[in-house]
Amino acid sequence: MVDKQILKLSKLCEHWANHNDSHKESFVKWRDVAKEKSLTSVVENLNNAIEMMDKCTEYLLSAKESINE
């Protein structure tokens, strides 16, 4: 018997990871705008946010993988 909550959690982890990817695309777009405007501090902060978003996505996909083992 499949636990419906665990199945939902697996699907949510994947959904959240995909949602992070769309946010990351926006961060990259606006980071590039900030770069064009020579907003060095903004660029650095957005680069950090991009790195953290990648790490968050990695953790979410790892959680999904653990559920599906």
Description of the molecule:
This protein is mainly alpha-helical and 69 residues long. It has one domain (10-67). It has helices at 4-36, 40-67. Helix 1 packs antiparallel against helix 2 (40-67). It starts with a helix and ends with a helix.
Mean pLDDT reading: 95
Which geometry do the CA atoms define? elongated
Characterize the largest beta sheet: strand count, sense, and whether it forms a barrel: none
Helices, by number, come to 2
Report the span from N to C terminus.
Answer: 15 Å
- Taking all Cα atoms into account, the compactness measure Rg is 16 Å
The count of domains is 1
Number of strands: 0
Helix content: over 70%
Would you tell me the structural class of the helices and strands?
mainly alpha
Give the percentage of residues in beta strands.
under 5%
Low-confidence stretches: none
- Summarize the helix and strand pattern as letters: HH
